[in-house]
Design brief:
mainly alpha, Arc Repressor Mutant, subunit A
């Protein structure tokens, strides 16, 4: 796979390929760990730029950076809203 923003799919957080169609729809209001991890994987894999992800999902750059950092350190468990103090 090439490392450009026009890739057809990237490896998702569970190891399966994900495409833009597999990502949560814009306007989502309930962010579960799986959805957060999919967005982080899409950006990390080049499927979506960080700027596009923030615009598409109405996220601040700081919020997305926090997701990315927690996911890289703790995996999906780090993205749990109920455990945020434990992982920070």
């Amino acid at each position: 796979m090439s490392q450009n923003a026009h890739q057809l799919s990237v490896r998702g957080p569970d190891g399966r390929p994900i495409t833009l169609e597999d990502l949560p729809k814009p306007g989502i209001t309930r962010w579960v760990t799986r959805r957060k991890a999919e967005i982080v994987a899409a950006v990390s894999g080049g499927l979506l730029s960080e700027n596009d992800a923030c615009k598409r999902y109405d996220l601040s750059e700081e919020e997305f950076a926090g997701w990315r950092q927690l996911y890289s350190k703790h995996g999906r468990k780090g993205l749990r809203a109920t455990r945020v103090q434990q992982y920070r």
